[in-house]
Design brief:
Layout lengths: L2 E7 L3 H17 L3 E7 L3 H7 L4 E4 L7 H11 L4 E4 L2 H5 L3 H8 L12
Parallel strand pairs: 1-2, 1-3, 3-4
Helix pairs in contact: 1-5, 2-3
Length: 113
């Protein structure tokens, strides 16, 4: 069974590059993950239409914690929450990003929600 992963970024500019590299890594590693992405303005629309197994946030999204936290509380209460580290994002360390994304559940970013 495939897991679904939604990459959430601020504007979508860097996410398209990250998504391309993630797709290559997923194929290379033969991992069963379907990936998609959403810029902040379209997160609610994406979450309201599909239940994702993993939400993967780019570092820029941290500053929108309150807004995204409300959406997660409304649409994705049981979804794994993952943050891409600043360093992994800066250097596009895609193997590590993917590995961290599929590790055990981590909702620490939104633990107070």
């Amino acid at each position: 069974m495939n897991k679904s992963l939604l990459v959430i970024c601020e504007t979508g500019i860097t996410a398209s590059s990250l998504l391309y590299k993630l797709a290559q890594e997923i194929e290379r590693e033969k991992v069963n993950i379907d990936i998609d992405y959403a810029a902040l303005p379209s997160v609610e629309e994406k979450l309201s239409k599909k239940e994702y197994d993993i939400l993967l946030f780019t570092p820029q999204v941290r500053r929108y914690k309150e807004t995204i936290g409300k959406l997660i509380h409304q649409y994705a209460k049981h979804t794994q929450i993952k943050m891409i580290s600043d360093q992994d994002f800066q250097y596009m360390n895609v193997p590590h990003i993917l590995h961290e994304a599929v590790k055990n559940e981590d909702r620490s970013l939104f633990q107070n929600e």
